[in-house]
Amino acid sequence: MMSSTQWTREAIGKIDADFQRTADTHLVKLDLPQLTGIQLYLKDESTHPTGSLKHRLARSLFLYGICNGWINQGTTVIESSSGSTAVSEAYFARLLGLPFIAVMPRSTSAQKIRQIEFYGGQCHLVNSSSEIYAESQRLATALDGHYMDQFTYAERATDWRGNNNIAESIFRQMSAEPWAIPSWIVMSAGTGGTSATIGRYIRYQKLDSKLCVVDPDHSVFHDFYHSGDENLVISKSSRIEGIGRPRVEPSFVPGVIDDMRRIPDGAAIATVHWLEQILGRKAGPSTGTNLFGALQIAHEMQQKGEQGAIVTLLCDSGDRYLDTCYNPNWVKAEIGDIALWQEKLNDLINAMK
Fold it and tell me: Residues 100-107: what's their mean pLDDT?
């Protein structure tokens, strides 16, 4: 057993070395002939080692926990997650030789469960997403472990002023584009940590960009943004894994958001199927939520005669959702007939001509 100080230094060194080995994610320009004077970009977070946007969050949460003295040699790390955060945290736990338990709803995709187990993590399933918080805390207490609690610490674990956060990366990669400062950045909320980081960075750097946060069905964030009621709770879980919450999470910061809108789940699923035809590869359903909102804003800008750039996120690969949003039987049973939304999406795109 090495000393606590020595273990902490080595752990931080391992995370830093992993970061240096990992190139930044790509910024993909989505060429749509219908868009005149507007350019649309996807920040492709699926190219992280663990395949999603949550890789950044997991790194930050581990560093935050280690530097606060909450995570030490042998500490069992517990997280409440719908999947992608747990996949990324399992990766970092294995890197540091720590036990990891993910507390997740039973509805979590089988592929995500397999990935967590691939990295050596254990999956602890509960019936509803509303149960994950208390069960995670119970396990942490029983095992003398650390409950990572992404929903509380996401917005404070990441340095929003810079230090290669996602906002800094977006604006650095946009610097040589025709509109280097995007008019809008469109982001969905899971913990709310990424939207908080982007919104704070925009203000701190005195940039002219605006932040739009899009919310799926069965989530309280949109209603909270407009009502200010922190006690909002719903019983249903979001069908778009990784985004939307049944309660207002501490990491969600409405004050940095310029516009918020709800995107129906049918629109999100229709949009990722359309995007596959454009990119030649599958993206996760939260990307559909993001992109439908971005297309709405692009249409509105055209109607106003405005020009500029819009950046949104490709959050993860669709390969994780082959048994859900890319399975016609699941879509029909859980979402319904998306033909109407496919028509509305086509109408929205054609209206930009």
Answer: 92
- pTM given for the model: 0.91
Task: Give the span between the Cα atoms of 258 and 266, in whole angstroms.
Answer: 25
Is residue 202 within 8 A of residue 211, CB to CB? The reply is yes
- pLDDT surpasses 90 at 146: yes
Which residues, in sequence order, are CB contacts of 328 under 8 Å at separation 6+? none
Question: How many angstroms separate the Cα of 78 from the Cα of each of 137, 146, 306?
Answer: 8, 6, 47
User: In this structure, are residues 27 and 40 in contact, taking their beta carbons and an 8 Å threshold?
Assistant: no
Cα first-last separation, the chain: 66
Round to whole Å and give the CA distance between 83 and 187.
Answer: 18
The DSSP bridge partners found for residue 194 are: none
91 to 55, 58, 99, 201: CA distances (angstroms): 9, 9, 11, 28
For residue 124, count other CB atoms closer than 10 A to its CB.
15
Coil, strand or helix at 340: helix
Show Cβ contacts of residue 281 under 8 Å, excluding neighbours closer than 6 positions: 317, 318
Tens-digit pLDDT profile for residues 197-246: 999 999 999 999 999 999 999 999 999 999 999 999 998 889 998 899 99
Residue 66 · residue 73 · CB < 8 Å: no
Per-residue confidence (pLDDT) for residue 164, from 0 to 100: 66
**Starting at the edge strand that comes first in sequence, how are the strands of the sheet with 77-80 ordered?**
122-126, 100-105, 77-80, 146-147
User: How far is 56 from 89, CA to CA, in rounded Å?
Assistant: 10
Q: Please report, as a single letter, which amino acid is at residue 296.
A: Q
CA distance linking residue 315 with residue 286, whole number of Å: 7
